[in-house]
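Field log, afternoon session.

UNIT: design team B
ACTIVITY: writing a sequence onto a fixed backbone
BACKBONE:
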């Protein structure tokens, strides 16, 4: 009676592999956050430089998700007011009727959350945050795939 052929294959330490991938993804997202910040800085309209200097991109991680949060927190220099008013959203989205004067939209992202004065056609949008996210989307996918592949080696 023949015993046949017996093959044993041990799976690699999957927990260590998952940790390597998580680390690689987090690192790549940090790199990409800086790239998006630079892209936004190069696309923002500059009058005083305050808005350009206020652009931020921060990377955070929890158990399941890596998140990049971008924003611009410049404030106007109003006399009699401490800090002035935030104006980044108005530059990003425009001030027309529900975005009518806002120019290009980005993948269905509308401006419903902003309120507008009905009697004023408004200022055209000059997006700088959304282009940094959406125009670099394919670059992020490519770089993440490369980082994950390298982590799996």
């Amino acid at each position: 009676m023949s015993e046949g052929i017996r093959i044993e294959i041990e799976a690699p330490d999957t927990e260590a592999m998952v940790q390597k991938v998580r680390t690689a993804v987090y690192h790549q997202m940090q790199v990409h956050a800086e790239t998006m910040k630079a892209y936004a800085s190069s696309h923002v309209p500059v009058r005083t430089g305050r808005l350009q200097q206020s652009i931020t991109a921060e990377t955070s991680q929890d158990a399941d998700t890596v998140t990049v949060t971008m924003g611009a927190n410049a404030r106007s220099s109003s006399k009699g007011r401490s800090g002035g008013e935030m104006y980044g959203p108005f530059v990003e989205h425009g001030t027309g009727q529900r975005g009518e004067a806002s120019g290009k939209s980005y993948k269905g992202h509308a401006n419903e959350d902003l309120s507008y004065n009905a009697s004023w056609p408004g200022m055209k949008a000059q997006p700088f945050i959304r282009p940094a996210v959406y125009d670099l989307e394919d670059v992020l996918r490519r770089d993440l795939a490369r980082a994950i592949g390298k982590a799996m080696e």
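LOG NOTE: The CA atoms of residues 61 and 67 lie 6 Å apart.
NEXT ACTIVITY: expression trials, pending approval
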